[in-house]
Design brief:
This protein is an alpha/beta fold and 248 residues long. The chain is 48% helix and 16% strand. It has two domains: 4-191, 2-enoyl-CoA Hydratase, Chain A, domain 1; 195-245. The chain contains twelve helices and nine strands. The protein is globular and about 50 Å long. This is Enoyl-CoA hydratase/isomerase family protein.
Length: 248
């Protein structure tokens, strides 16, 4: 598959996947989500790739789902392969390292959390604004990192989370203040992926499916609950109003 909004470059056995829609703060439209789903699924079976390093172009990691597209399609783009996309990035059987730059908001926050190891710039900010307009933020993704109770309380607050706070909460693994965060992250990816693949795959499967229930079922159940919210006629108007607010 030829990618329109991703750059994919292999360095030794690590595949660097870069979100490449900087003019839109790497907003996750249908196309880029399909491309992410494809690159994760394809390289799960690629023996030449032992790890994925997820990076971003421009100042910010990702602003989340493309709200202009969501409004234009009357929520259809939000529904598009929502379960398949999230399951592909979270069930990837090899190590994933995320570089967090600038801000990661809403769906961008969730995408960053697919990293088994998240290394962040000091100035980076994580943000879950969905609660502010009645949207359904994912609990499963954040709960995998910090547990369901803390994930819920942070989500209900809807406040930006600076890198120092994210580190203390266990959301991210490291705040890097050196000059070349990409090279640093590549070293981490190499270290994490040096072990036997079968063992790594088993460990990720255990982490995903044994302590908080089955990952696929958790995501499916959560998205089924979302469907109820999306059926509310008032929700579409709330999304439109919020999209207009952030456009100003």
């Amino acid at each position: 598959m030829k990618y329109q909004f991703l750059l994919a470059e292999r360095r030794d056995t690590t595949l660097i996947v870069t979100l490449n829609r900087p003019e839109k703060s790497n907003a996750l439209n249908v196309q880029i989500r399909d491309e992410l789903e494809d690159v994760f699924n394809t390289n799960a079976k690629n023996d030449a790739v032992k790890a994925i390093l997820l990076d971003s172009s421009g100042k910010n990691f990702s602003s989340g789902y493309d709200l202009e597209e969501v409004v234009r399609t009357e929520l259809e783009s939000f529904r598009h392969r929502i379960l398949e996309y999230h399951y592909a990035i979270y069930s990837f059987p090899k190590p994933v390292v995320t570089i967090l730059r600038g801000f990661a908001s809403a769906g961008g926050f969730d995408l960053a959390l697919c990293g088994d190891y998240i290394v962040s710039e000091k100035k980076a900010i994580l943000f879950r604004p969905e609660i502010r307009f009645g949207g359904p933020p994912l609990i499963t993704t954040l709960a995998r990192k910090i547990g369901p109770s803390k994930a819920l309380s942070l989500t209900l607050k809807g406040d930006p989370i600076r890198s120092s706070q994210a580190l203390s909460l266990g959301i991210i693994d490291e705040v890097y203040e050196g000059e070349d965060i990409l090279q640093h992250a590549l070293r981490i990816a190499s270290k994490l992926s040096q072990w036997d693949f079968n063992m790594l795959s088993v460990l990720k499967g255990i982490a995903n499916n044994y302590f908080m229930g089955n990952l696929y079922e958790n995501l499916k159940n959560e998205f089924d609950e979302f469907a109820v919210v999306l059926k509310d006629p008032k929700f579409y108007q709330k999304v439109r109003d919020y999209a207009e607010t952030i456009r100003q």
